[in-house]
Amino acid sequence: MTFVPRVWAPEAKHVSVHVEGTDHDSPMTPDRHHSGWWIASNPLPPGTKYRFRVDGGQPLPDPRSRRQPEGIHGPSEVVASTTFEWTDSEWSGIPAHGSIMYELHIGTFTPTGTFAGARERLPDLAALGVDLIEIMPIAPVPGTRNWGYDSVDIFAVTENYGGPAQFAAFVDAAHSHGMGVCLDVVYNHLGPDGNYLAGFGPYFTEDHTTPWGRGANLDGSHANQVRSYFIDNAMQWIRDYHVDALRLDAVAFLRDDSPRHFLAELSDTVAAFARASGRIVSLIAESDLNDPTMITSTATGGMGMDAQWNDDLHHALHTLITKESFGYYSDFTLPGALEKAFRHVFVHDGNWSSFRQKVWGRPVPDTVSGHCFVVATETHDQVGNRALGDRPARISDSGSPDFGALAVQSALLIASPFTPMLFQGQEWATTTPFQFFTDHGPELGPAVEAGRRREFEGWDSLIEGGSATVPSPQALSTFTDSILDWDQRDLPGHREYVRFMTDSIALRKATPDLASGSLTETELVRLGDSGYLRRGKVYVVFALEPATVTVPMSDARPALSWSDPHITEVRGAVTVRFDQPGVVILLP
After folding, report:
1. Distance, CA of 313 to CA of 15 (rounded, Å)
2. Strand 49-54's sheet: what is its strand order?
3. Which of 35, 189, 309, 509 is deepest in the core (most CB within 10 A)?
4. What would the pLDDT profile of 58-110 be if each residue is shown by its tens digit?
5. How confident is the prediction for the chain on average, in pLDDT?
């Protein structure tokens, strides 16, 4: 299979293609069928390295490069996806709705930090009960280590993890274990290093701003080609790499004032492909707008996303366990916040947000399934954006993980009416942090370090009594300290916790009331640091300190517990006594 170089450069006078190993540029001609596009006269075979030169400027990587073998500043390389060796012809996908999701970062998930290394751990995830693996961004980044949100060349796969063929092999292997793959993609900005798009066309605009600078040009002059750039990228992952879902990063910053929002167009395009191919493909939006319009169908004016992240449940459970109340956690310590998060999805649904200093959000109708909301107690954001990247509520006074408190948090998460997601290592209560790490060059690196220090000014009292310092993002140790310690999984306490998590997931899948997304059949009753979650006729009873909890059920059968609570039944009610933090799930 050969590749004919094409590039969009609508304002260019001359464009040429330079093939590595030759000493001249070959001129390209305007594409008569596609305005603003230039096309080469000769095809290139797979493996060929090339760049484009616009109006005599420096040679630049292809904006749609499939591979950057020498890094973000090097030449692009022709990749033929038809050479990938697939064995998943019988795989038709897996829905995100109601699945058990698992977020991981390839670079720190295993000691090798590669797709091949992660592939070796797929049996462990399958045994845990994972349905859908969400992978943090894999596009090329500066240096050898990064979360992935500083990526450029969004059609390519970073060499740090093994490159395009290895990613395809990972997806294929996941499917062979009965698990889907969700890829995290970033369309709201590109990284500050290696972003050459402005040398080709108006991909970004001053009309919209984001925390990272100019917004994507989704509604201005030439916006149709910019929208196609991102939609074509989404389709590449779905079509050529067989991914089952895309997680769209920070969609609130995909600002678009056109009559048909970019997200709605993307949703309709993906849905059309899914119908034609017979595959199940999902789109999941990361959105803090607390607006159900995100998951409303495009036919009725919505964005058409299949699901959206919901941090409100995280904040409510986090404050329950840790008692932290600073920053955006403050409103979630208020009476009724936890109860509202379980029953009505958003705590902020048209009321005052003290953190934002404005009214925020809209209510979620009871008719909407809770499965439309992805919830977690740990994510790369909620762990990594802490000053130390520490796992909250991890260490008890004795210096070991507080397994009882963690069991409460995890049981409530897994038994929720939502789509639960775990973060790498959470299943064994890892104490490995997930810190913010980068590998920028000498010009950008110091600025990133200074920005991280400014971000956490005034947080000293919250960091181990002020005795610790925020790790330098540029230090190699910040990255290596974040690599999961898989040996910890087999230590006492951790080993039992893995079993508890595995059994909790299996119980959810086997129990219709727990697997249901019904909001109306969900009720949380909080009694200080104890209480219960009712899911239909199933009760999840919990306590974070010695307590006695009575639930209105009879003929209860304990299906799963942590801390061996004492259960008695008197006059049609069940009383559960906890001598230490723990949880029990009672079936009728």
Report:
1. 52
2. 25-27, 15-19, 49-54, 76-77
3. 309
4. 999 999 999 999 999 999 999 999 999 999 999 999 999 999 999 999 999 99
5. 95
- CA atoms 544, 548, 554, 560: torsion sign: positive
What are phi and psi for residue 587, nearest 5 degrees?
Answer: -100, 150
Q: What is the mean pLDDT of residues 461-488?
A: 83
Provide the sign of the torsion angle of the four alpha carbons 253, 254, 258, 262, taken in this order: negative
List the structure tokens of 52.
């484009």
Distances in whole angstroms, Cα of residue 266 to Cα of each of 38, 92, 292, 409:
25, 20, 17, 35
Considering 184, 286, 311, 402, which one is annotated as catalytic? 286
Q: Would you state the pLDDT for residue 398? A: 58
206 CB-contact burial (10 Å; exposed 0-12 / middle 13-18 / buried 19+): exposed
Which is the catalytic residue, given 103, 150, 193, 249?
A: 249
In contact, 68 and 159? CB cutoff 8 Å: yes
Residue 6 backbone phi and psi in degrees, to 5? -135, 150
| pLDDT tens readout for residues 150-208 | 999 999 999 999 999 999 999 999 999 999 999 999 999 999 999 999 999 999 999 99
**b/e per residue, 437-452, with b = 16+ CB within 10 A?**
bbbbeeebbeebbeeb
Query: Locate tokens 């925390």: which residue?
Result: 211
CA 434 from centre of chain: 14
| Tokens representing residue 571 in the block | 């006059």
pTM of the model: 0.97
Q: Which residue has the tokens 């840790």?
A: 322
**Count of CB atoms within 10 A of residue 566's CB?**
11
Q: Which two tokens stand for residue 528?
A: 């200080």
Sign of CA dihedral 380, 126, 106, 468: positive
Q: Has 249 been annotated as catalytic?
A: yes
Active site residue 265: no
